[in-house]
Amino acid sequence: MEKTEKQKRRFGLIGRNIAYSFSRGYFKEKFLKMGLDQHYYENFDLEDIAHFTKVTTKNKDLVGLNVTIPYKEAIIPYLKTLDPVAKAIGAVNTIKITPEGLLGYNTDAYGFEQALLPFLKPHHKQALILGTGGASKAVAYVLKKRQIKYRYVSRKPESGYLNYMDLDQETMTSHHLIINCTPLGTWPDTESKPGIPYSFLSAEHLLFDLIYNPEKTSFLKEGEKRGATISNGAKMLVFQADKSWEIWNS
Prior knowledge:
This protein is an alpha/beta fold.
């Protein structure tokens, strides 16, 4: 994208209760640095996904959209086609708007993988995924790709899932990678955290939290206290945002 481009282009984020969102600030700064003064990014805070069609019909100059909680799966019926990765995951966080229709992509998987790789060690062979929403599916896709066995943990477990009550010492000590895909601990409710038995954590564990605000969640603090390696979701967001930008401009 040339810095001298003057064509007005608009982008945005679809979600619910997204005033805190990372994306708007990130892209505003990106456009400023690139000298793209005719580029805009805004939040479309929807109480219900049924209002999505109003966004695209009323904003004809939209080029691309990101999608966040709780609509990464619910958005799919509104799209014309899905990229193979988004199709495999069953969740979309990036939409490219074309004359032929809306195209769905998933850059969460790319972002998570790039952020996770520097921390992975040979003993990270089994993982627990806390939560079962759209983001957790992208995480599972990456773990499968990396040949890391995983189990979902949910408050309302489906067949094959673990309940938080099932997390005993044996389970915790055999799963050295734990990824929080729930919103628990997000600002302003920073004291909350997933109900896992933190006392069984050790220096062998890697705790990855998709949350980025606060920088260090209660979940991560509990791991850090016990010598675990920790990472929040900030770098994942940057990687997935840059991948979205690449898609919109391809």
